[in-house]
Design brief:
The chain is an alpha/beta fold. It has one domain: Uracil-DNA glycosylase-like domain (Uracil-DNA Glycosylase, subunit E), CATH 3.40.470.10. Helix content is about 40%, strand content about 10%. It is built from eleven helices and six strands. It has a six-stranded mixed β-sheet with strand order 1-3-2-4-6-5. About 30% of the residues are buried.
């Protein structure tokens, strides 16, 4: 019997009201559900049940930047490349001492196939120009080479998929110094997190047995939102300039 009903009947009895005997509630019969057999390990791992993975690129025989670009243009990066117009490879002078590595292309970069040409790229050009570096004085690319859906931040999976291309890119260019633009770029190549506390602090990036000095810098898009941090970025750029002058 429902506890609320029993309490009410008890109250009636105490007040002198005749209360009929209420039969005990019949037990509710619970229907047994048929047992569902768990999928066998073989069925769960069958090709039809798994989402096909992206095939890792074969880059061991790549010897030139043109060959690397051709491979990337023809590479099926799954959903990553499906959502983009084209691969965004690089711009600038591959013979320069400085290699600039950003995060991922945006709308303008996706249209033109070159990194750092939108509003944040234009600010980066002005920042580098302030320490007397023109487009012939640096070579720029990104840790992710396709525009991400809705311009979201790169995930570890995005970075892992593009990493073989990035490592081969660095190996071919052999820069003297790397500028890591943005926290995602810094984390991807150094494992260090927290751009706010690590900007301007030299890090080591080791690729194929070669170690490169790398300077983390605030991303220009971040500086557009936080202009009060431009003074910190300026100090970091001066540190970068001093390093380049010693080469």
């Amino acid at each position: 019997m429902d506890s609320a009903l029993r309490s009410l009947l008890d109250w009636y009895a105490q007040m002198g009201v005749d209360v009929p005997n209420v039969p005990a509630a019949r037990p509710v019969r619970v229907k047994k559900r048929p047992l569902v057999k768990a999928a066998s390990p073989l069925a769960a791992s069958s090709p039809a049940a798994e989402k096909p993975s992206v095939v890792a690129p074969e880059l061991s025989k790549i010897r030139t930047l043109d060959a690397l670009k051709d491979v990337m243009n023809n590479y099926d990066a799954g959903a990553l490349s499906d959502a983009a117009r084209q691969v965004v490879f690089a711009r600038g002078n591959p013979e320069a001492n400085l290699m600039v590595i950003g995060e991922a292309p945006g709308r303008e970069e996706d249209i033109q196939g070159k990194p750092f040409i939108g509003p944040s790229g234009q600010l980066l050009d002005r920042m580098l120009g302030a320490i007397a570096l023109g487009e012939d004085d640096f070579y720029a690319t990104n840790i992710v080479n396709w525009r991400l859906p809705k311009d979201r931040n790169p995930t570890p999976q995005d970075v892992a998929l593009c990493r073989p291309f990035l490592e081969k890119h660095i190996e071919l260019v052999q820069p003297k110094v790397i500028l890591l633009v943005g926290g995602a770029s810094m984390s991807a190549l150094t494992g260090v997190t927290g751009i706010m506390k690590n900007h301007g602090q030299w890090q080591d990036v080791t690729i194929s047995g070669t170690t490169y000095p790398a300077m983390p810098l605030y991303h220009p898009a971040f500086l557009i939102r936080r202009p009060e941090l431009k003074k910190d970025a300026w100090r970091d750029l001066l540190t970068l300039r001093e390093k380049l002058l010693t080469l």
